[in-house]
Amino acid sequence: MQHFLQSEPWMRFQESLDREVISDKGFDWSYNAYLEKGSGNTRLYTPYGPSLTAPEAFPDALVSLKKKAAEHRATFIRIEPTDQLDPATLTSLGFKPVTYQQLNPTHTLVLDLTRSSEEILSDMSQNSRNLTRNYASKGLIFSQSQKPEDITILTSLLHKVAARNNITPHSDSYFEKQAKALFPLDAARLFFMSLQDQPIAAALVYDSPTTRYYAHAAADDDYRKLSAGTALVGQMILDAKSRGLLQFDLYGIAPPDDPNHPWTGFTKFKKSFGGTEVTYGGAWDLPLKPLPYYGYRLYQSLRHLSKVR
């Protein structure tokens, strides 16, 4: 199944960021990729791709990727296969696992929406289920929007979260461009919970023909006792079910064997909605120009070490 980051709407968003989009497809494979240009190197990056209907199709996809990368003088190719490609095979082809940075989650949690709403609710924790059912009794109002200007509801809450936790979120411009590119295509939607006409929790989701992805969210800590964020996710799940979508992807959890991972807290939150854990193959680089590539890799590795110390 093609991931949303391999979709046509996502590529239109990438073009709005002034990135050059490169696409190709063949029998049992396809990819959407874009060029990312840095100081001294350029990479051809296919997020959560290439898309394959069978692992045996990968060599043909790779031939195309190499050709496109050479045409654009890329330093290296980066792939993030969601299909189960053998790491030994990737290594034999010259790919290097990316261990120093992560662009997209390797582990995620996916809910099956083909079941009845009651079955979906029964898989939630008791607290999440109760909040999903009874949020209105707390005075909360569930709303949604595809007006690009309403993205400020989310960005305003993100600023509060960032200030509280001393983190740096994506820029407002990044979200504004997403809204302008994706909302008119019905490929994304803003959901929010309000109390007395004041939004106190919001989330941006991506929608493919089969799957809703829980992408970005924020809640006002001043109202944390209301657990509006929990009720919001529960209602977004039921809304996706009502629209005929097949899955709800909670989009990123901590590795199961790392209890000290920085995502442990919100992983516990996401698991309260049920779902099945899914593991992808991670990010892999194929160097095409060894000297600048290994210089880039050394620089990124040193940056990573300085951050974890």
Q: First CA to last CA: what distance?
A: 39 Å
- The CATH C-level name of the largest domain is Alpha Beta
Approximately how much helix is present in the residues?
Answer: 25-40%
**Overall CATH architecture of the largest domain:** 3-Layer(aba) Sandwich
CATH homologous superfamily (4th level) name of the largest domain = Gcn5-related N-acetyltransferase (GNAT)
Determine Rg (CA atoms, Å): 20 Å
Order of helices and strands: HEEEEHEHEEHHEHHEEEHEHEEH
Which spans of ≥5 residues are poorly predicted at pLDDT below 50? none
Briefly note the CATH topology name of the largest domain: Aminopeptidase
Number of strands: 14
Q: What gross morphology would you assign?
A: globular
How many domain regions? 2
How much beta, percentage-wise?
25-35%
Structural class by SSE content: alpha+beta
Overall residue-averaged pLDDT value: 94
Number of helix segments?
Answer: 10
Structural overview:
The chain is of the alpha+beta class and 309 residues long. The chain folds into two domains: 4-105 and 280-308, Aminopeptidase (3-Layer(aba) Sandwich), CATH 3.40.630; 107-278, Gcn5-related N-acetyltransferase (GNAT) (Aminopeptidase, 3-Layer(aba) Sandwich), CATH 3.40.630.30. Helices cover 36% and strands 26% of the residues. The protein has ten helices and 14 strands. It has helices at 8-16, 58-71, 87-92, 117-122, 126-134, 152-165, 172-182, 228-242, 264-271, 290-308; strands at 21-26, 29-38, 41-46, 51-52, 76-79, 96-97, 107-112, 140-145, 188-195, 198-207, 211-219, 247-249, 276-279, 284-287. The strands form two sheets. Strands 1, 2, 3, 4, 5, 6 and 14 form a seven-stranded mixed beta sheet that branches. A seven-stranded mixed beta sheet has the order 8-9-10-11-12-7-13, sandwiched between helices. A hairpin with a 2-residue loop joins strand 9 and strand 10. Helix 5 (126-134) crosses helix 8 (228-242). The protein starts with 7 loop residues before the first helix and ends with a helix. The model has no long low-confidence stretch (mean pLDDT 94).
